[in-house]
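Memo to structure team: turn this sequence into structure tokens by end of day. - J.P.
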Amino acid sequence: MKSLRTKAQGWVYFLYDHYFQEDANNDLTDFIQYFKIEGFANEPEVYIKTTNEGLEFGYIATRWDGYMVLLPPGQYKKHLLPWSSIKLMNKENQQERILELLMKTINTRKRQYRKCQFCGEKLATEHRIDDNICHSCASKYLGVVF
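Reply from structure team:
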């Protein structure tokens, strides 16, 4: 089974070869691609998207408005690689920098997950009432009403 870094590297190389190379015919306006963290918890997604400033790296997470879930899930920006920096690097350095920021984003998202002390499920911070108790178990065992 491939490591997460190897999968992410293959994905970055694919994106680079198909979308990020300087080409007058490539329109990167509103470009966004999602990478699923397979085999981890509920398989959260991180993203790379283009902005006027550069390549943005972030993750997708549920948004709450009080007790209601808002749709669609929110995009939470973690890193930005400015176009000015990208243009100063050769292809290999660009790919390595993109991979580095992608892995930092993945690791940031993974660190937000904790196991519930009751059910043992690994959940993101937005699905827990504190570090150790998920919403479902808070209702079931503690009487919390959402």
